[in-house]
Amino acid sequence: MLTLDRRQVVLGLLGVAVLGVIWQLATTHVTRMTTFPNTLEAGGAALAQLVDPEFWRQLRVSGFRWACGLGLAVGIGVPIGLVMGRHRRVHAVVDPLLTAMYPIPKASLILLFVLLWGAGNGARIVAIATGAIIPVIVSSYHGAAGVEERLLWSGRSLGWRAGRSMLSVVFPAALPQILNGIRIAISISIFVLVGSELLVRGSGIGNYLFNFYDVGQNSKVWGTALALAIVGWLLDSAYVAVVRLATPWMDGQV
Amino acid sequence: MRPPGATSQPRLPARIARGIAKLLYPFVVLGVAWWGLAGWLDRPFAVPTPGDTWDRAIDLWRGDIFGMASLRKSLLLTVTRIALAFALAATTGVIVGSALGRVRWFRQMFGPLVVFGFPIPKLAIYPGIVIALGLGMSSKVVLGYLEAFFPIVLATSAATSQVPEKLLWSARSVGYGRVGLVTGVVLPAAAPGILTGLRVGLVGAIIGVFLGEMIFPSSGVGAIMVGSYRTIDAPGVYVAVASISVIGFVADQLFLSGRRRLLHWSPEGA
Description:
The complex is a heterodimer of chains A (254) and B (270).
Chain A: H1 6-30, H2 39-50, H3 53-86, H4 88-101, H5 109-117, H6 121-145, H7 149-157, H8 162-199, H9 205-214, H10 218-246
Helix pairs in contact in A: 2-10, 3-4, 3-6, 3-8, 5-6, 6-8, 7-8, 8-9, 8-10, 9-10
Chain B: H1 12-41, H2 50-62, H3 71-102, H4 104-117, H5 122-133, H6 137-161, H7 165-173, H8 178-215, H9 221-230, H10 234-262
């Protein structure tokens, strides 16, 4: 799957170097030096954040909200999507609502939820779940709609009722698509998490990042942002690796 | 432009009526739910009634409440930013994506960077971008651009890399050059996948620009939303959410109808 030949490694490093040079040129030619740390400074600041316990403490606060929101989205979204995939009427009712909700910036809804419930974890978790649920529903729907009829027939021939078929046939058959949807949901939920913490301050990693902006510590702003980027990327890679390990029978990519 | 075989469609007026009903249905559901919730909760500072919100929308449209720019001007500004961000992301994204999909050394050089850039939360970099570019137009457009660019690149590179070689051979055999192959064969054959990426990118541009306007509120509909929130003006917050939702819905629907027109020949276009 992932074959690292020498050409790939050399060209990959060259690509990173080209990006570094572009960044460096940007610091000297496009913006003022003082506002934009150069490549080495930015990398150093990111490393400094990654070993700072406060960064991880704030990340844990945010991580709790994120996990609750994502869990809620998966727990509600998967059943809705599976039922939509097997029942045309349910699909006809729910699908236009999803289409209408799709282009709304979910992170902005945090303000509505805060007006309703106050600026605690609850409002943030609901905002994250609202953002993450759409890709979960859509992918579960596509997975369930594409289940081979033959599989359902064999379930029926064993005398299974609709609920049992859903659990033992439709869900496993749709699993690859669902896992793919959850991957998209992860990146959207991180976006909503950071957005909601930047919009309604209080605690968490977004607030931590914004504090550096407020006091004008520019290299720390960039350092925290890059450290967060690395964490986001690690999370995505870890998800892909775990899914590959846990479902070795699945072909195709996540 | 339907193939002659497809005559089982209902007549045109019935189809239009059904289309309009399908388009309006979610708004009727949301409106009724909102109206019911506002009446049931009876907390106008948390959930304003649709009537109050409509009144506030008219005030805001005329402008100058608490020193904010009018909704009319803000809408124009926000839409301009979204259009700029999306246009830039679509052009560069399709070019870079095609190069990633068709050119081996380019893919090996920049593929890993794009894969790295895709899942990172671009919002986290935004304060840094604002420090560098200021509060005005450019930082908001850049955030919208970043949100739109990566989905477009990934979809385009996936779609262009899957163009059947046979199509390329036959085009070459009738004398297509390098440029002709790209514009005449690769891009049209990859169009369904590219357009799917562009739709995700369009929504990304809307979300990026709007969030940018909210996080550092200086102008635009996002600034109206945050300005209203800070003055505990719930109807104003709802006006802003409704405005950006309408922008998003209209843009998405226009895109989908354009996509259907472009792809009438392919199974994905239906």
